[in-house]
Amino acid sequence: MQLRSSNIDKLTGEVFDVLIVGGGINGAAAAAALAGKGARVALVERGDFAGSTSMHSSNLVWGGIKYMESRDFALVRKLCKSRNHLIKSYPSTVQEIRFLTTIPKGFRYHPRYLWAGSWLYWLIGNGFTRIPRFLAPSAIKQSEAIVDVAEAMGGFEYSDAYLHDNDARFVFNFVRGALNYGGVAVNYVESLGGTRENGLWVTQLRDVIDGGTLEVRSRVLINAAGPWVDKHNALTGQQTDYHHVYSKGIHLIVPRLTDNQRVLAFFADDGRLFFVIPMGPRTCIGTTDTRVEKPEVGVTEDDIRFVLDNINKRLTLERPLTTADIISTRCGVRPLAVRANGGGERDFLQLSRKHAIDINGEDAHLSIFGGKLTDCLNVGDEVVDAVRDMGVSIPHPGHRWYGEPPQEVRHEFMHQAALMGLDVMTAPEASEPLSTRLWRRYGTHALEMLEEIREDPRQAEVLIEGTEYLRCELRHAQRREMVTRLEDFLRRRSKIALVVDEVAIRDSPGLREACAILFGDQAEARYEEYFAASRGEEAVLPSTGE
């Protein structure tokens, strides 16, 4: 864990332009934008990067079609433009996908009315995606045989986008981008609050791993703590125009229900949108939308029953899905930004995920409320503008801080991969060629993996059975991805823990080797920690000495 140790050492060595508290999508995008444009940035996260809301999304990048009903066209326009921008900026990762929506008899709108709305949605999005189409019940059945159309009036198909890999991986790549630009980022470091002293923020931090404390000095403090923004503002004495209310959402990961690469969308019994989403060899179903009072949540029997009941009513499966089919779950809260003087009780289910940036210029403090993956590039750019207005120098204001490497680099990677016959090494059961997968996940760093595979062909072998992660990817994660606990790799840098059940992971002959690569002499302790946590036990671990 040399990368983490070296970054902790850097935290106390200087005065940073900006300290960011929180490593979800808002904090990660802000760090990448500021570092990419030349500001001196540090980011701390009390758990792992993307360890909360940002790892529990639907993996969808969408323009907010549900806000068409509330006629929030300005928000839809902004989100559609953001979606289009992400598709163009990350063509290997953010990809267009079709949504097939089935409308039940007696629904509040006729399918043709909604189909017309999907055309308006397409036009608001500049006609960037494939055109919508109307489907009669028979056409729905022909397109997707598992959909039960007995009670359907019809439906429509339109396009949005999805993340080919998981959401947490997408977020981490922004953190990695900030590191590449010279920023400092550390996971498992908790902010205990800060005070303003002589024109600087002095923030007290605690290393969650070994309990050590330190302090960081910065000109600006950014609170990007996601669902805990209000709590951290209390620690720093900040009064804001916004606060959060919380909506809990869960997803169930089950065996793949259909081979078609599209999202099936339905209206659940309570009228809310409900999805069946492709996830590699699995299917993700959900979500719920339950008002909760605090961000610490878990999956309940009622949540599971709601999802299973709704999906079984709408699909004609060989047998109904039961709890025995659940491979893994996702559960998190959506932090919804509302004005501090009201709004949290009004039309809760219609509250949008749009972000709000609350600025205290006098204290050089900024809080980011709400937000979603689709809007991340806007958050990054807006934060840069706000920090500049607070007097921080931005040396490279025109630098493009996001996006995949240039096409010339991709062509060189693909050329070298073809010369060495990389795709011939692809496992027979793999979902895509090795060259495609490595480029999407690692970009320029994938060139280093080619060199490792040339030197040792064993580096192209799948290490953990039932997954699509190679030995060289584990070596890369150990060097460059700040994997501090086994869950960081299994659940966030990869999606192994989402798509492979726990028994299969534990019994995989390659898991011990993976731990050895990632943690060295801490391998056994981290292995025991992970499986103790899954059993609800406390693992007693030695200090890492960091």
From TrEMBL:
Top-level taxon of the source organism: Bacteria
Domain FAD dependent oxidoreductase as annotated: residue spans: 17-336
Q: Name one GO molecular function term.
A: glycerol-3-phosphate dehydrogenase (quinone) activity
| Coiled coil (UniProt feature) | none
Which is a GO BP term held by this UniProt record?
Answer: glycerol-3-phosphate catabolic process
Does Protein biosynthesis appear among the keywords? no
Leader sequence segment: none
The Alpha-glycerophosphate oxidase C-terminal domain sits at 429-501
Family, per the entry? Belongs to the FAD-dependent glycerol-3-phosphate dehydrogenase family.
What is the protein's name according to its record?
A: FAD-dependent oxidoreductase
